[in-house]
Amino acid sequence: MSGALALPGGRWVLPGNRADLLDDVHPQEPPEVSVVVPHYRQQAQLDLVLTGLAHQTHPRSRLQVLVVDDGSPVRPAVHPAAAGLDVRVLAQDDRGFRAAAARNLGAAAADGEVLCFLDADTVPEPGYVARASRLPALAPDALVTGRRRHADLTGWTPAGLLRWFGDGPGPTELEEPSWLAALSAGLAHADDGSYRAVISAVMTCSRELFTEVGGFDETFTSYGGEDWELAHRMWTAGAVLAHERSAVAWHDGPDWAGRPDDRATAVAQKAAETRAVARRVPVARAGPAWFPWPEVVLRAPGSDPAAAVRVALASGLDVGVWTEVDLGWSDVRVHTGEVPQVVLERARVVVDGVPPTPLHAAVELVRPGTVGALRWPGGQVRATRALRRARRHAPALGLGEDAALGALFGVTDTAPSGARG
Q1: Domain named Glycosyltransferase 2-like: which ranges (predicted)?
Q2: DSSP labels for 245-299?
Q3: What pTM, to 2 d.p., does this model score?
Q4: Is the pLDDT of residue 264 over 90?
Q5: What is the residue-wise DSSP string for 105-124?
């Protein structure tokens, strides 16, 4: 695996998840950033967020803000403290909790090359945008999560906020969620479960990456989960997950676990979120339940598809098999024809050709940051994220797809112990 590879325009393609290779690198000029803020009946909190955005160290001339109202009875207003800031207010009908659709609406109207997502109750410190946007401006594959801290901002005004950011007295600080801090700190060694560290309240990425994966899944129509699902799809698309601890935004109120809601209702909401994510994210599942988007996709060879199916189904993996001809196999995991794009977008691993036995050993060798592809006579196993990142950048790098994959993730031609082709 090599170091960072240069793209035109001062941008870079990173190997593995090596965001650290650009730790001391800055864009030649500040990027054009569009901040997307979903809103619903939060005018006082929105006033603070817009005030914070109006006083960023990032050049105001290269900053756009899109407030997207999710059907509030009264359309949100732009506070005078944000005068001079480029703010557009968009709106969608009130058809339930549609934060995912609101963020997509804002992103579709954005002009910036970098998309910065903030919530309407999460106030950015003055250096937030500059710090959160640095890496996506340099590496289009970067998906950056900032640091979400918590404070009681009840009764706070824009004037009080500016005094605080000017070294005046601050609000009562609340406990920072330990689960999120631990996950964020581990992003330097991200794996297939690291999507849980990405929260849309403090999330920044290139518009290029966001557009390629299709944005948020708008079928999420209740609280929670849409950011994790998007982060997983970005990961399988080859995203580099990174935590920018110095990019701090303050959430008004405690983390979910500390909110004084009815606990029975809260537990039911969390259970619904867990089910919604598990239906769409293969690595979030537990137990033998089957879903149409498997973790492992096997494209069986035309020479002996039945043998390939037998090996795949005996592997114990969450696998789906696609064959060129109808084998008449009465198993929901076996399909005929091309693999649908929606399946490939979510799969962690793609197997082509005659699978080795044991298949699970080959799959486990294809780990992010360790090896991108494993090849043997008659077939190969590739990490989806390695394949898609290589495919995306190979032309600009002047490399073939296989060469780009090897340079960014590494390739081995040694089959796992006991494998046969």
Answers
A1: 34-135
A2: EEEEEEEES--GGG--S-HHHHHHHHHHHHHHHHHH-GGG--SS---SS-SEEEE
A3: 0.92
A4: no
A5: HHHHT---SEEEEE-TTEEE
